Amino acid sequence: MRVCVIGTGYVGLVTGACLAHIGHDVICVDNNEEKVKLMRSGQSPIFEPGLSEIMQTAIEKGKIEFTTDLAAGVAHGQILFIAVGTPPLPTGESDTRYVEAVARGIGSHLNGDYKVIVNKSTVPIGSGDWVRMIVLDGYREQRKEANTPVLVGAGSADAVPDAVVFEEPAFDVVSNPEFLREGSAVFDTFNPDRIVLGGNSERAITLMQELYAPIVSRDFAEDKSMPAVPVVVTDLSSAEMIKYAANAFLATKISFINEVANICDRVGADVVEVARGIGLDSRVGSKFLNAGIGWGGSCFPKDVSALIHTADDYGYEAQLLKSAVSVNERQRMVLVEKLQQVLKILKGKTVGLLGLTFKPDTDDMRDAPALTIVQHLTRLGTKVKAYDPIVSQSGLSHGLSDILIETDPERLADGCDALVLVTEWQVFKSLDYAKMAKLMNAPVLIDGRNFLDQDALEAIGFRYLGIGRAS
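That's the UDP-glucose 6-dehydrogenase sequence above. Prediction below.
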């Protein structure tokens, strides 16, 4: 099938590359010329395991192109994905100006061919009908500029006296929310738990099912013997709500186990054992029960805030979700409090952070807990150093001008009064901690993700503190 993906961030680029990989003809559109040049060369502008490889293969096979020409993308695609960002506004609601601009642009380039316009961006509930309205506005504006009269709505020709009436463009809007995890987005695309399709057009849903057929039948899955991927077909609003509800539930589950961890710290229980015990209950499940310093990134904070804002708009106070946010905000201070317990006065001390990104296997620093931790430590007069496998190599400061970015773990440890594990990069399990301990002023390690081997670290002389761990 012919596909156009507009926006090449995490969601758009992964979607476009993966659809090309399974055999569709894809054009990815982005308004950033430098970014387009980079992608044409086969390089990914983001760090995502496996992405560059499938991009290069798709380019070599002629299955994917990159352009700044929206008109060319719209003309090419039977299915048009809107995959631009919807960042949070200070109020908590989503900033939909980029979605609006793309929808209007699509409308201005529509011709007589039938199109399925897909909301892949995480958009406020009710955006399906709103996008349809904006697309029609763009179509009408373009026709007016060309002095071509258009139909303003079935049965509404009386609103434009003496207007010549033409058919409206043939298109339908579908909601197809993404459930990709940064760091494993390519894997998630080929091995999804489910595919959600929201819409009221049987024709559009049929085309979307055809598009995803190779993924549904697990032709590209890691385990091809698994049953077919469930496809949830529902209405537009319910599909949009599924995305928000899923992320809000996972964020709340993390906040819950972090609250339990804080209680464990006070009563001497071990949250790792508690999580294992409750996770074996099939009604609870073991995923997202890892206590630590809370959630961050581009999805959970934005989506939970947007759902709270939607509830407020409709006269309901989402108290549980607000509490989940409050617990998460406080959780970032736990590391600072533990450092104060061990080092007492932090002014004049040196602390080394192991990891900066909000999660491993990504270069994303959006709403990373590290940013909050750095802010509080520097305010308290602490010298902060950091080492991150991606950030240290990229040479980018990510706004961290107040700290020293080290190029290797040994340099990080040198002269530190404590180390703090912030991001659970797999490489951190195999560092030479015995050598690092000798370079430190005092071998103290605060494990903000309960990720490292406490017994092994204590055996080589570290004082180890986890989150909700028994001493």
